[in-house]
Amino acid sequence: MIITVSFFILILISVITLVGIVLLSAYYLIARIRSKEKLKMLISLKKTAVFFAMAIILNVGLIILSQFIASTPPIVDENGNTPQNSIAELRKLELNGREQWISLRGWDKNAPVLLFLAGGPGGTQMAAVRHELAELEKHFVVVNWDQPGSGKSYYAEKVKNITAQTYIQDGYALTEYLKERFAQEKIYLVGESWGSALGIFLIDKYPEAYYAFIGTGQMVDFAETERIDYAKALEIAQSKGDTALIKQLTANGEPPYYGKDVTWKSAVYLNYLNTHMADNPEIHNPGYNTLRDIYSSEYDLLDKINFFRGIINTFNHVYQQLYTIDLRTDYTKLNVPVYFFLGRHDVNAPPHLVEEYMQVLDAPVKKIVWFEHSGHNPWINESVKFVREILSCLSEDKIQE
Fold first, then answer.
1. Which of 8, 47, 188, 395 sits CB 3.0–4.6 Å from 114 for a disulfide?
2. Given a cut of 80, is residue 20 above it in pLDDT?
3. Count: domains in the chain
């Protein structure tokens, strides 16, 4: 926190100093043209330039320092002791030639491995999962992966080159790394929102690598979801007489959107729906704690900036590639047990699409678990129940094996 505050103070100082340099330079040139006394002005200009250079150097130093001290906190029990066989690592890997970051956390490094697939595309939930689902670490080695174009892995690949296949390829490479490192035959997958679709892609292509999959905030048909979300936001706005939002939605038109403004146009109705869910008294613990997450120790100064760049830039580029995907027609047979953890009040990823998907899905096990006090994020809204249901479902899966 101190480093972050110092960084932004230095940024402010640098900007002010740069403005001073520009103004002093202009005055100096005018003085030269008019053949006026300019020695004092030149000295002031040099001093200001030196001050600017020092601020820049200090900021670069803070960036480097923040990269060295970024870490995930150790596992501690109720007495403040670290379990002997625990693991708490922040690690950089090369997956298919792309440098990416993961966190690994668990009370026992010999426990089963559970890979959490964040939403987005472009989102990072490395810190959020640690805060919200710490109880899972008692039962699994919980792995969080900053996917290409997000958070700590923002520079893994140029955003313009990222496709759904990029995530599938790197997700599988990460899976193989985890299986080898922890001597596991298979691992478990949990995916939320965009990550729920990525999880389906992975178990479809590599069923031999996974014990089971849990999807929450499950995406089914991306284009239809956007149209439903848009219509829902318009309906709510009309019921509230929110003329400003109605005007903006009407101006943008019905999705799906393409081009450079996908993020901003989608944000109009998505943010409105998120606010609607946050205001719903039936939804517990309704929203993300963004400030807590972004200031968490896993993220260095550049990561904090890339936290938002991923949400804006990567989402904009990748999301419009997903509009042709419909799990109801493209992924109807899966050879891995599948569980859908759905918020009863989710107006972001419509649950009825998941119910339709269940009707056509052929899988060894398929089950919907309802969360009565959740919206789009049961893992946040009802985290205690979320962990309990994971343990219950995966225990059933073990029995059936």
1. 188
2. no
3. 2
